[in-house]
Amino acid sequence: MYRSIKNAVILGGVFVIFVVGTYLPTWTDRLIFWGVGGIVFIILAVLIGERVRRLIEGYYTYMSGGAEDGDLVYKEGGNTLRLYFKRRPHTIYVPSDMKWIEVMPDWAKANKNLIMTRIRGQVGRHWMFEDTEKREHVLAQR
């Protein structure tokens, strides 16, 4: 659904910029308007598009941390959970099933498969996921 909305907005924006530009008196004015209008439209589409995607899907992920390691943050509505990652081997450490139930907030305990599917879809193919029970790889949840 999000892709259909995004494609419709992009086509509509390009159409509006083109039509409005055709009313300008000279070709130079039209080319400048189309160029500037196109750049502004692309910037707005990217910025607003991400917010709309988050609103429609109801969740998002981001990574924070240093050059070596950090936290992958998953937000769904007002809820948040964090997973530890290392950049060098491109590995995200996921608590094993038993550890997940032990450390995750109540809202996430029964939803591990759904949450991990969403995270995999957001972070990309170059990240590996490793089940772990190691204390240093399992983050305390707030």
Distance between the termini: 33 Å
> How many separate structural domains?
2
Strand order of the biggest β-sheet: 1-2-3-4-5
Number of strands: 5
Low-confidence stretches: none
For the CA atoms, what is the radius of gyration? 21 Å
Q: What is the mean pLDDT?
A: 90
Percentage of β-strand residues? 15-25%
Biggest sheet features: 5 strands, mixed
Question: Could you list some keywords that capture this structure?
Answer:
142 residues, alpha+beta, 2 domains, five-stranded mixed sheet, elongated
What does this protein structure show overall?
The chain is built from 5 helices and 5 strands, in the order ααββββαααβ. With 142 residues, it is of the alpha+beta class. It has 2 domains: 2-57; 59-137, no CATH class.
Chain-wise SSE layout:
Blueprint lengths: L1 H21 L4 H31 L1 E7 L3 E8 L2 E8 L4 E5 L1 H7 L2 H4 L2 H12 L4 E5 L10
Parallel strand pairs: 4-5
Antiparallel strand pairs: 1-2, 2-3, 3-4
Helix pairs in contact: 1-2
Quick gist of this model?
With 142 residues, the protein is an alpha+beta fold. It is built from 5 helices and 5 strands.
